[in-house]
Specification:
Layout: H1 2-18, E1 32-37, E2 42-46, E3 49-56, H2 61-70, E4 86-96, E5 99-112, E6 130-135, E7 138-145, H3 151-167, E8 177-180, E9 193-199
Antiparallel strand pairs: 1-2, 2-7, 3-5, 3-6, 4-5, 4-8, 7-9, 8-9
């Protein structure tokens, strides 16, 4: 009987994984204008967007903190809809107008808030580690890839993206950003992941 139950559970998990349950197919994501479509990557202009942000060290702590916020850990105990992507990057500090460097390996994770909220109307977090920020309009070079959202997969693709950007005369403004769109029940080949670099295209007349 235990063997049969175990097989049934395994089958259910497999069927759930095979279904198109990825957030990218059902959840809101920030709007953008496609500026250019290259052979293997895109240049996008994102509109201003509102995020809940947390800076942290270690693995996994950022996601849980932000998930608690949208699950009701705010002063109005309001639940917010999950959106995509979830982004993660290395925290940076400005050292000169065009120079940036890492701040001790600290990471930044962001959840994009539903479009009906503004910086004034978004629920205030009860955790002081969470901040609400309005990101300005920004150009990004973006490469999309499938598979696990592992660090190794991300590193391979952001390095590839940087090589192609250098070939095309594009210079990143900061460190690469990891963007993930799918939940854990999505099979690797159905997953949408992205590596992104912020760009300054104003000097190129774009």
């Amino acid at each position: 009987m235990k063997i049969i139950i175990k097989k049934c559970v395994t089958l259910i998990v497999f069927l759930l994984a095979a279904l198109p349950l990825g957030p990218a197919m059902a959840y809101d994501e920030p709007p953008y204008h496609l500026v250019a479509s290259k052979a293997s990557y895109e240049v996008r202009l994102y509109a201003p967007r509102l995020v809940a942000e947390v800076a942290y060290r270690g693995e996994g702590s950022g996601f849980q903190t932000l998930f608690s916020y949208i699950s009701g850990a705010n002063i109005s105990a309001q639940k917010l809809a999950m959106t995509v992507p979830v982004t993660e990057s290395v925290k940076i500090r400005m050292t000169a107008p065009v120079a940036q460097q890492q701040a001790g390996g600290q990471k930044v994770m962001q959840f994009f808030l539903p479009p009906e909220f503004t910086a004034e109307s978004a629920p205030r977090p009860t955790n002081p580690a969470v901040s609400i920020k309005l990101l300005p309009a920004q150009y990004f070079a973006v490469i999309t890839y499938s598979g696990h959202a592992s660090d190794g997969n991300f590193i391979r693709h952001h390095q590839l993206l940087r090589q192609m950007m250098e070939r095309d005369g594009l210079t990143p403004l900061g460190p690469p950003v990891k963007a993930t769109y799918n939940g854990p029940f999505t099979l690797p080949f159905n997953r949408r992941n992205e590596a992104m670099f912020a760009l300054d295209l104003t000097k190129r007349g774009s």
